[in-house]
């Protein structure tokens, strides 16, 4: 892999102060972005029976939601560069809430694809991308730790939502639950209100004139500061997407590896609870497997960020990420060796550790490879390309899951 890119943002990130409040806000936004689609799997069995659809068809709900979140990444980044993180996150919370409320009125599985998948996915994209970029404006020396803490939001929210969703379903049914979830996700608007633009201390001035910074640029940690006389004719797409990254060896290795990985990255989570129910495990115990997974994930993410920030690992964080990806694959290869509920608990623990390590390092490694100035373009290209495996992975796995169940019945 190439050496880490040297960052020159044109100012000194505070590496603390209000930045820790921003980390808390990113914790909430990232938490809902990644955990929300996973937590909905608790409703899959009941929705499947209600609409009379297959495992593969119901898997498309979470799959479309994740794919929409990834596909809308470039749109979200352009809006962040133009308006700042705060308004984009708040609008994202409103969109996600509207999607869940409309889904509670669903009359078909297609209705859920559109409301939960497409509308909800766009709302999540407007939460994820701003949270990732604003951390880069507040942190540089402590960035791996800040990213690790922010990414911990996913398992914490999942740990809370998994049993809560089961309780809501038992009390209000899936329609009433979706309506209540539409109110809960409005907390994303609160998180967005905390994402105050960084107060940049300019330490590098390319000209003798003072360097002025507008509010939109303050929200983008992926680009260097621009002076007032920047070309007005430069389009948003040209400013955001840097296609020269496809000549960057490290970026190509990262991209190809992630595309392959994401075909199976989310599928084990989507089918963990349904698989446990198929094995005869009761609903609450099956839902609790997601909480166990989230608990392991919850503790390993900040620990990974802390380790990644040490002087021994920080210069070689790309290889630390490669180790995490390899460990994630090995843990799934060992899954068939675990039997019964106790075995699934052990699998959920080691899977949570592997998953958490990968997630804590995912975007930190990308920024380490391409640098802060090109991070916005890089994350946009990565998310738009990754939406294909994110979309197809769980349904393909669902088809294999059905074939496995049919074979087991014949035996």
From TrEMBL:
Molecular function GO terms recorded: monocarboxylic acid transmembrane transporter activity; symporter activity
Keyword rRNA-binding recorded: no
Record's keyword terms, sorted: Cell membrane, Membrane, Symport, Transmembrane, Transmembrane helix, Transport
Family label: Belongs to the major facilitator superfamily. Monocarboxylate porter (TC 2.A.1.13) family.
Gene3D superfamilies: MFS general substrate transporter like domains
Name of this chain's protein: Major facilitator superfamily (MFS) profile domain-containing protein
Compartments, record wording: Basolateral cell membrane
A single GO cellular-component term on record: basolateral plasma membrane
Record-annotated Major facilitator superfamily (MFS) profile domain positions: 19-411
Catalytic activity: 4-methyl-2-oxopentanoate(out) + H(+)(out) = 4-methyl-2-oxopentanoate(in) + H(+)(in); 3-methyl-2-oxobutanoate(out) + H(+)(out) = 3-methyl-2-oxobutanoate(in) + H(+)(in)
InterPro entries for the chain: MCT, MFS, MFS_dom, MFS_trans_sf, Proton-linked_MCT
Protein topology in the membrane: Multi-pass membrane protein
Pfam families reported in the protein's UniProt record: MFS_1
Domain of life: Eukaryota
Listed transmembrane segments: 17-37, 58-80, 100-124, 176-195, 251-272, 284-307, 319-339, 345-363, 375-396
